[in-house]
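_Per-residue structure_
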Amino acid sequence: MSNHQIKRGVSLYSYQEEFFLQKMSLEDCIAAVAKTGATGIEILGEQSIWGFPKLTDAFVDQWFGWMDKYGVTPVCHDFMLDYTMTKGKYYSDDEALQSIIRDLKFAKRLGFKIMRAIVNITPELMEKAAPYAEEYDIKIGIEVHSPWHINSAWMARHWEVMEKTGSKYLGFVPDMGAFTKRLARVQTDRMIREGADPKIVEFVCEQHEKGIMAEYIIAQVSQMSKRRIDIAVAELTRHNTYYNPIALLQHIPRIFHIHAKFYEMLDDGTEYSIPYEDIIQILIKGGYNGYLSSEYEGNRHIQDVYEVDSVEQVRRQQEMFKRLLGEEVAPNKKSIVVQA
């Protein structure tokens, strides 16, 4: 018997390659989630729903029909905030607030209880949104996305607003990409295919694993090469950071949902870059009781040479979660190598 209340979900963003190419429909994506045994559905409304933010009665009925048919539940709607919808004009806070309210109404109608706020939304705007989150009974979590981490100055300002308002509807949605211990192999390999020097790639990966500061790595590589592609490899360390996941512990009461980012699930059932074995033990220790939502982003790095199989990659991560969460693990029925 498991000693936790962590649940498993999938962001349909994971299937973006097949969805964009119309190899999978929205229902196909939902069915694929259910087949893994995960029960939580996460969407980016403007990506997943044709006609967003408008919803017809027929679509809403169909949506809940799919939830019942596949035994899944709406968990999180990831909303964006386009500050420049009108050319030459930047949204005021009041205009941005109206956009958030629009998304709250959208999420409410589809049964979502959590919304992920994109990382650049200001603490002041989150404070203004809090009463509306309470009105619609939907929690809003600011995404903690690399290069920020949960104790960074930007997130500290958000935490101050949470404390100031006392609202239980404001919190965090950490993205596990903030714990990238090894640079994604699928990403660095693609950069080699695009002309990066393999020796510089090896140097950058080694320095990142040692915890060397990104700015130092970039400075060193800029002395080794003046080619833009080589500098770009070094700059990966600026945007793919590693922060000790133990930092999550003190914030567990404010963590509503988790983006379980991953780039490459290996044949041995582990993720190449992100130490989920450590992360999940920390979440269990802290009493986290929300969803771990698979978010596959390796697709964009292999599409030039491989047939993307997002369904298989998500399945592998979900099998890893079953193992780490103490659930029964099904035998591996399929093995696809995506790495030469």
